[in-house]
Design brief:
Blueprint lengths: L2 H20 L6 H8 L3 H7 L3 H25 L5 H14 L10 H9 L5 H26 L9 H21 L5 H17 L16
Length: 211
Amino acid sequence: MSKGEDSRKEIVASALAMASEVGLEGVTIGALAERTGRSKSGLFAHFGSKEELQIAILDEAVDRFVSLVVSPALKEKRGLPRVRALFERWLAWARADFMPGGCIFMAATVELDDRPGPTRDRLVSSEKDWLGVLSGAAKIAVDEGHFRPDLDCDQFAFELYAIAHGYHTLARLFRDRASEKRARAAFDRLLRDATISTETRPSARPSAKHH
């Protein structure tokens, strides 16, 4: 890696930490220059615009997420062990020391949900990829016989995504120490549902007895 590439990587790492605290919009060239002790002109040599910098931050976050969450989990045994590993590593992701303000994807979701443009497109792409990983892991669990054959794997991915986002929100906003315990309880219920066939599941409304 060249000196210029090393420099750029250091800058993006600082920008990622900063974005986790103040959001992507808070990471301006000027604020980042002050934080890193570099000149604005030096930063402009690496990033021609604020939008380019924001996309670089998301790219760095995605690379780290794949390295710390996805890749290690995919090395686990196929099926349920892999699904559990994805969940466990996702919870740990929010506590990573390089994101002192919490999950950057959560912060970016709030900022960019109604703001069209390349930065939002990059975030949407990464989140769709992640949902695809979760759905794919569930499909493999079905193939392995760990989950019921009639499982809606996209629905499973949606609910797992919602559990983790709820955990990240409550843990940061409420400082709720019980949030992780509740997330794990919700995850366990989701797994139980995924293993129970709809044909053998008890009816929600028992039929009336005839006299």
